[in-house]
């Protein structure tokens, strides 16, 4: 039997080079310019996101600060209203033994009065009346109270800052003739100061740095030695308006 041997000729006799086969496919990836563009776009979006987040956080801080300030003003209003509604017509002696009217006030933003309703849950040997004062100093409204009604020379008040960041403060007091006065007892009083009953109503005007001007009108308690009831805040005549800065001059 004859055998035929075929000898490969031409390109079929060559082996394929793997490196050539791989080189036939184009490699994929990012060029340097494409990376720079992507990074720039990412940076722009990051700045936009940070700016939006920062704006949200600032707004949140402003809202929280406004809520805190509003809570302080509401607390101060309730404290003032509670004090003036408990005013009593009971004169008291100061540290020098001089008899002072039940309510006295200067035109410098200070007011001092006798109030009732001082709670005594422990049944301590003390009255339910106390001496309370408000003082305006360095942009602060300070409340002071004494442990004794008739003070001695060594009597010291308990102080509590009620409001801060005030630009100015002014008090006005309504008498029985429905006239407003910047101090109490008024200059037109024809009796001894200790014999002057408390006013019928009190108005406080506050000028704040952040909110502006606020006015609170309080009716005093009816137990103040007068005949009849005090006018309500709605029926009391409005005090004369003027530049609030006059109160501090």
From TrEMBL:
It is found in: Cell inner membrane. PROSITE patterns: PROKAR_NTER_METHYL. Keywords: Cell inner membrane, Cell membrane, Coiled coil, Membrane, Methylation, Transmembrane, Transmembrane helix. GO terms for biological process: protein secretion by the type II secretion system. InterPro entries: N_methyl_site, Pilin-like, T2SS_protein-GspJ, T2SS_protein_J. Residues 1-25, 224-249 are annotated as: Disordered. It comes from the Bacteria. Residues 56-90 form a coiled coil. The chain crosses the membrane at residues 30-53. Pfam families: N_methyl (PF07963), T2SSJ (PF11612). GO terms for cellular component: plasma membrane; type II protein secretion system complex. It is a single-pass membrane protein. SUPFAM superfamilies: Pili subunits. Belongs to the GSP J family. This is Type II secretion system protein J. It comes from Fontimonas thermophila.
């Amino acid at each position: 039997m004859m055998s035929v041997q075929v000898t490969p000729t031409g390109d079929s006799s060559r082996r394929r080079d793997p490196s050539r086969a791989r080189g036939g496919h184009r490699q994929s990836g990012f060029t340097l310019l494409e990376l720079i563009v992507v990074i720039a776009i990412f940076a722009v979006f990051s700045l936009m996101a940070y700016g939006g987040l920062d704006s949200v956080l600032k707004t949140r801080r402003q809202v929280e600060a406004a809520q805190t300030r509003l809570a302080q003003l509401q607390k101060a209003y309730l404290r003032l209203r509670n004090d003036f509604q408990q005013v009593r017509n009971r004169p008291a002696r100061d540290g020098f033994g001089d008899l002072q009217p039940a309510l006295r006030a200067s035109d410098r933003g200070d007011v001092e009065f006798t109030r009732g309703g001082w709670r005594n849950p422990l049944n301590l040997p003390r009255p339910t009346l106390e001496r309370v004062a408000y003082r305006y100093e360095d942009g602060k409204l300070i409340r002071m109270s004494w442990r004794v009604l008739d003070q001695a020379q060594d009597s010291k008040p308990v102080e509590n800052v009620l409001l801060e960041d005030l630009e100015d403060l002014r008090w006005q007091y309504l008498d029985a003739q429905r006239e407003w006065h910047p101090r109490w007892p008024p200059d037109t009083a024809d009796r001894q100061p200790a014999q002057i009953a408390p006013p019928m109503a009190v108005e406080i005007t506050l000028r704040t740095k952040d909110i502006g001007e606020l006015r609170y009108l309080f009716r005093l308690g009816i137990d103040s030695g007068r005949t009849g009831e005090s006018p309500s805040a709605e029926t009391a005549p409005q005090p004369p308006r003027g530049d609030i800065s006059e109160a501090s001059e």
